[in-house]
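Margin note from the TA: students keep mixing up input and output lines. Inputs are the sequences; the output is the structure of the whole complex. Example:
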Amino acid sequence: MYDRKLITGIADRWAGETAVTYGTNACIPKQQGWFPGIPSPMTAHTMQHALLAEYEGCTVEEAFDGHEIETQQGTCYAIETSEELELARPDIPALSDAIMQELRLIPGIGKITAEKFHQRGIQDISDLITHPRFGADARIIADAADENDWTFLEAHCRRRCTASDNLFLLFSLVTHPSDLLFFDIETLGIFSRPVILFGAGRIEGRSLKVTQYLLRNIGEEPAAISAVMEEITENTRLVTYNGRAFDYPYLRDRAGYYGIPSVNDPAHTDLLHHVRRQWKREMPDCRLGTVEGKILGQYRKEDLPGSMVPWYYQTYRRTGNPGPLVPIIEHNRLDITNLPLIYERLLEGCLCPSH
Amino acid sequence: MAQFEEPDPPLEKHVGEYCRRNHLRLYTHQTATRTAVHEGRDVMLVTPTASGKTLAYLIPIMEGLRTDPTARALMLFPTKALTRDQLKTATSLSDAIVPDAKPAVYDGDTPKNRRKNIRESSRIILSNPHELHHILSWHSLWQGFWKNLRYLVIDEAHRYRGVAGSHAALLFRRMLRVAAFYGSHPRIILASATIGNPSPFAYTLTGRDVSVIHSSGAPEGPRSFLLYNPYFPPEQRDTTYRAAASLMQYCVAQDLQTLTFTNSRKGAETLASMTGRHHSEKIPAYRAGYLPGDRRKLEQGLKSGSFRGIVSTDALEVGIDIGSLDSVIMAGFPGSRNATWQRSGRAGRTTRHALSVLVASENPLDQYYMHHPEAFFGRPAENVAISPENPYILAGHLLCAAAELPLTGEDCSIWFGPSASGIAEELIQGGALTHTRRGAVYSGSARPAEIVRISGTGGKQLKIISDGKLIETIEIGQAYREAHPGAVFLHAGDTYLIRTLDLETGIIRADRTKVDFQTTVHSSGQPESVVESKNTRTYGCRLSFGNVVVSEHYPFYQVKRYGKPVSTEPLSLPSLKFATEAFWFSFTPEEMKALEQAGFDPAGTLHAIEHALIAMMPAEVLCDRQDLGGFSTLCAADTGMPTIMVYDGYEGGAGLAATGFNRFEEILRMTHELITECPCESGCPSCIFSPKCGSMNQPLDKAGAATLLGMMCRAGKISADDEPSFTCDNAE
């Protein structure tokens, strides 16, 4: 039986291992070269120091202009910002054209057969409708395209093409711009640990409205999750950067942790796959910061690397000083606002490869 | 004779057909298991090896999967090798009965691209505790599985003992809690070798009251069991291995297919080459660490009869299908009677006459059984001790549990025992957990299933590095015992010589070398503080149990070549301090004075009893004497009384001392017999010498020990009512 007098230090034993204890070494980003805002690890320390001094005595509510929201799971804090955005997207026929030109969507046609058809001048699935072997499948696809049955076609493409296929980028065209949800989370680690900030961006007319749900304490996580889940309806399409592998499974995992129901598999366009496909050769790596620099010509100043988010947040938890949250929130907001811009460029790139 | 029993109500249609087609009739214990599961009881099967335990649990599961098309089952095995072996059996049954069950192994070797499919569609999943530990926090991916989990099989349950067993017990609680979250409450079926305390053990392991099924209906063929003592008479000493080798040669020459077990990997190879040297046929060795392909070849060779003999470690003790052999030889007592029967069961699975030979080693326990065959054959099996209350182990699992689902106070008391909420509170104060409305939420940054290992107690970890490569991470206590400077360290079949151990950096440097010697470290422990939690008066002494903080000193180690001491080398390691559980018994200074006046050495007497008692502990509690530490003194620091103490060698305790406290009388009586019957004059390795004594087995007084133990046994058990004064003066 546990005897607290005799057996001491149980919590200490785990405190060291569970808490973030970034030494100076751990602060050096593993990948050198693309952290224009963070020239040396000491900056992370200095920056936190300065922030703590600047926000000394401040509350979260004073530091960030937002409002408390009520959910079935309690309250959390939402910070709303908005900026101008005019999203230019091609029209839906671009998608049906692309589908009809992809002969490989027909079961039985691989790279080589498609090539042979091309040489014979067959470029379009509708040309195959009378083909003795492929006719039946060609008709199914052509009919679906005629009837705008995008759900069927997208599911069919998932079976026939890789995740980075341009088609999947184009499938996002069927989602109305106001149903696109640009999404990114900041967490305390990789899976099984709380999400501390959820960023969601929506297009409203000519602007992008960003809502960030912040956990003022860990107890607000269920409320923030349910607020985010309410934003995801059956018409929603998530647009993320590596969200297929990370952000959305993480969100679902945390929802499962609290027993909050979640949408199993919402429509999702993960830009990372397409960035890799289009620009891999032009970039040293495919991190979001790199892409922003190379493609949008934007370099972040004083940005906080994602790996240091847990450390900054734990400092906030320990001190109650909202200073360290400032760069986390800013980092997340920039991630969200840049997603539509990259999305736009990718669409351009896949329709006019020469650019 | 085989005893069959027709199941009532009759078997589900398809299961019944399968049995008829394969001419299967259920033995009484198989039917009993099926009935229990049907009635919604949890059950533990403790029948002998080869009595058809697998079929006993698969039959009701197959029925359940047929009648409820959503039902799913999880089967856990302690090792990967066993899991693969059992997959074959499960598949052959389910393919015939429940074709959509698609049994599959889900463990570290399962390819990534198959995992999703298995999670979502396999209705029977086979895995191991290690894998379970890692997948529990992903329960939202497993929703369909947890929601429909109807059956949980824990095979080889007796293997979950000591520290590993305590981890397993808490892991099973975590799993049942996740299943309960999704609304399921699976039936638990435990299969185990024969143990002394099946019902309480199963309760501690799973938190459920189980029905125990003892009596086996499976036929047992005739068997001759030979106890062979090469150390008797003492002047004609032969070694265990030489005796085992010549017995093996004889058996093989008589055309008996023979399996010889040794208790170490090195031993297996030595014995194989010793036997093979005098024999035209090759005698291979089998042990863990060989490549799977090589192992399979050996297994096949045994099955087909192309090998007449093989030498193995405990790797062939269970599970692996090698067919039935003619004779089994055990070179040295395997440590428990239960393991002895397991090994012995490898011969004569059919009704042919089988031969088992136990060749004794010099160890006290071996020698005790050689002199007491009635104890060997007649005593109830050893008790299995586990201690999920160990606060160090518990704390780690609470972290994991809080990362799986928010941990409420109610959860703590339902699933994790009375100390859990206090420990959770401490973890909240320490910042690893955060209190929320929903319960405690894990809020650290490291992944708990990665930092909490399901072995050891979470103490300081040291890295063993050889040639710049990390070969193993071990806890400080184990490092002191096995990887001190100068130690010969075994890892995956290779030997390493330890060069340095640096506590500050946590790095142990080792060189891979071939050496022909072994090392044993010697230690002595001393209690620094003692908190008594219960005591009683029995066998003429005051017996106590409680928590202690022990300071262990490791003064030197011994180098041995072929079992013979070559040299003794000093060590300079700082003492190791840890909290653990202990039982101790004390006498009065007057009793010691009387011993002294009778010409005995009181200090040597207590010391000798301490050693012999620890050597006999494994006869009652499933453990190794290395798992225990001892201490004896004429004047205990806290009470001033002559005292002998036995403590768990693991931080927080593994339930060994607790079981020892409960079985004190039996252990003491055997200790008395051991010492009085040993033919040596003043002590030998077969009675009062300890292989790890930190004071060079000095002083020891065998005659004094025999006298004092004799007095104790004559005093016998005195009930608490007779002497109230001794039970009321509780120290705290």
